[in-house]
Amino acid sequence: MKERPWRSRTPGMMNGRRFYLRAAVLAMAAFLGMEKGHAVPAEDVLLPAPSECRSDASSLVRLPLRLAVYAPEKDAPAVEALLNVLNAQGALTGLSMTRDRDSADVVCSLEGIPAGTGEGYGARLEGVQGGRGVLHLNAAAPQGLFYAWQSMVQVLNANRTGEGFSLPVFSLRDVPRFEWRGIMLDVSRHFFTMAEVKRMIDAMSLFKLNRLHLHLTDGPGWRMEIKKYPLLTSMSAWRVPLANGEWNWQEVKLAIQEHDPEATYGGFYTQEQMKEIIAYASSRQVTVVPEIDLPGHSYAAMHAYGDLICDGVDFPVEGKKGRDAVCMGRPETLRFVKDVVDELKAVFPPGSPIHLGHDEVSAEAWKKCKYCRNRLKELNETDLKALSRDFLRQIADYVRQGGYDAIVWDEGGELEADKHIFVMAWRGNDFAAAAARKGHPVILSPCSHFYFDYYQSSAPTEPKAIGGLIPLQQVYGYELPELTPEEAARVRGLQANIWTEYLYDMGLVEYMMWPRALALSERAWSDCDPRDYRSFRSRASAALKLLEKLAVKYRPMDDEN
Ligand code: ACM
Ligand code: ZN
Known about the structure:
The structure is a single chain. The chain has helices spanning 16-31, 76-89, 142-157, 194-206, 231-234, 271-282, 299-304, 331-347, 364-368, 370-378, 385-400, 410-413, 429-438, 472-476, 485-488, 506-513, 516-525, 533-549; strands at 52-64, 68-70, 96-97, 106-109, 121-127, 133-138, 164-174, 180-186, 211-215, 217-218, 221-222, 238-240, 253-254, 265-266, 287-294, 353-357, 405-409, 422-425, 442-444, 491-498. It is of the alpha/beta class and 561 residues long. The protein has two domains: 52-174, 2-Layer Sandwich (Chitobiase, domain 2), CATH 3.30.379; 180-549, TIM Barrel, CATH 3.20.20.80. It has an eight-stranded parallel barrel with strand order 8-9-15-16-17-18-19-20, surrounded by five helices. It has a seven-stranded mixed sheet with strand order 1-7-5-6-4-2-3, with helices on one face. Strand 8 (180-186), helix 4 (194-206) and strand 9 (211-215) form a beta-alpha-beta unit. Helix 2 (76-89) crosses helix 3, helix 4 runs parallel beside helix 6 and helix 8 runs parallel beside helix 11 (385-400). The relative contact order is 0.11. Zinc ion binds at residues 310-311, 327-329, 366, 369, 371-372.
């Protein structure tokens, strides 16, 4: 259990003694030639809140705008690589290495904080002669050092003066609550470019979000190159733009671009491009999680490869009426999925999770299909669920060869295929608890709290969304299901999902994502009390200013939440 974050001044909590302290600080700040109101203690700005943080508001120190960073020789290459990433991220710039420890503004070292997931870190700002400050950042692994810097990005940006930074000394220690702090982006309903995805990774990493789950396939588009099955992208990555711009899945028309000049809308990532996204994300401590949604939501695959369609389905019409599950009886299906997994493994590094979908599967087409019926007989079963159970078992086994993890949506967990499969619970806490009880590792992404495609406000001015209502405070108020300690240990983390039926550009995605992703980040990283919403809101204001600096859009916070 982590210690409670120590925060000195949430709004409305300023007692008399602290008031005098602040007056003294402001007087000193004026003496140092700072703009009034600049000295913000670290604990008043850090989001997610750190495990422990203490500032001394009576001791202000200065740091220059361009920070010289020292690291012991053994750590210097890792630190230099990190500085390159930070300079590119753009929220702090002018970071450079120095070999002179005495004149350094920042001293980084890879030692000290107990390993765990390697994400923990310590940070300390001390005053030296002449009002100069020196920052000490330490972590057992590069991940932790990266997060130490992300915290410093927040603290320094809140304390910028004309010539540099001026802020109270502090000391902090920080370790995450959960290892999985995810965002899912649906790139099937609408395609997002490499630059847009990278920009999302930059913004996520500022707030210690570390899993980007890409929903790469669904009915309206297949979004990753699979060399053995070129039609998936030449045909099913393109469609005719919707006539009136309104989303209507029944009207989506996939087509081969070369043969239909109208099929201009869409796109896909080549394997080289996906490798570039993975490397970009990895340098920002984000793991990319590919999802191939099976056996339902497979219209795009079935459209390109008719061998995946059940006997007796009147395709394409019936494919759009829920009969979009691939055939469980034809040997082509298993071959196809294994081939796709092989190519995913050639692109995604070992240790990556591979998401296999399994949400909202209709068995309608399997009922009358001669291949599926034969397969059911072979399995000596009568319930159609046995088809998907057997299919999932085989694919999950295949995925795991080579050190990959298999993930499914919670319907897949109900199949009782294999308890080593990770379950991503989207239908709510009851489903999450059921999966944890059965022994599955669980990721919580309940549509009651973490569906960021739902409205944020009931105001009529909101951009059109799919429905629902999840204001910011509701995200922040999420509570885990009741679990025994043993079951709770299976909870790997939290994730928000951004389905994009109505989110046709990245500006809209960002608007729906922020500030709600800040609330997710804090609940996933910090073991904070959701009743501390006022403190969160005040720190979220500073966080939104940082997003503005990166030109990321967001929904302004209002009185409603
Ligand atoms: C889902 O929302 N169907 C995972
Ligand atoms: Zn079939």
